[in-house]
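Q: How would the structure tokens look for this protein?
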Amino acid sequence: MNRDRLKKLAADKRFIPGIYNYCDRWCERCPQTSRCLIFSISEEEFSNPETRDIRNEAFWNKLSGILKETLELLKESAKEWGIEPETLDSTDDTENIKAKDAAVENHLLCRAAKRYSKLVEDWFRGRETLFFETVAAAREGVDLDEAIEVIRWYQYFICAKVMRAVRGKIEEEERGNELASDSDGSAKIALIAIDRSIGAWAVIRHYFTDCAKGVIDIITFLDSLRQAVEETFPNARSFIRPGFDEIDPNG
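A: Here is the predicted structure in token form.
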């Protein structure tokens, strides 16, 4: 995709600015794909099955081309605004970035979110017969397949969004930002993912009565993480995500 095409898409009024920043990346289930610039670019550039397969060289070549064109477009825009990108890098900036990376990695919320990802992996690793159990559950009317899909989708997503929220909070505190913030938006979608995951684990608990304690332990851990995120980001639940959350005119 060339820069002219990117510019044209970016200027298209049908797209909601920033809608992709606070979604759960589950495009197949999203009702707003027609309003999302990232989805449209993906559909246009990765329509060929070969370019959709991350194990195929065509995928990485296509992705590399898009990133290169996007970077050049950003450089052009920066110069139009009187910014010289080459002058932005410095040793102090590099050290500051490293310090923030370390602060995010060591933050209690981020370590807890990573711990949850591992708990999920450990729980599923010892259950190779889950496919057959899923079929049996379907016969009994328990939507186990759906629950597993939800848990697996958000397994690492929660950690990624918690880390982004923490990093955003660190940067916002440096700037003294008191307005609705990116960190709250990231924390909100992390909380939504946690809510849905807890619901899915409740379904697992309903079916796997033989290992209910292990499931309850995971739910308890996830609920503690949810409370910690809410305490750290008290405005997250009220954050209005573009395209997803209604604005209450009486609010």
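The two ends are 43 Å apart (CA to CA).

DSSP finds eleven helices and no strands in the chain.

Upvote if useful.
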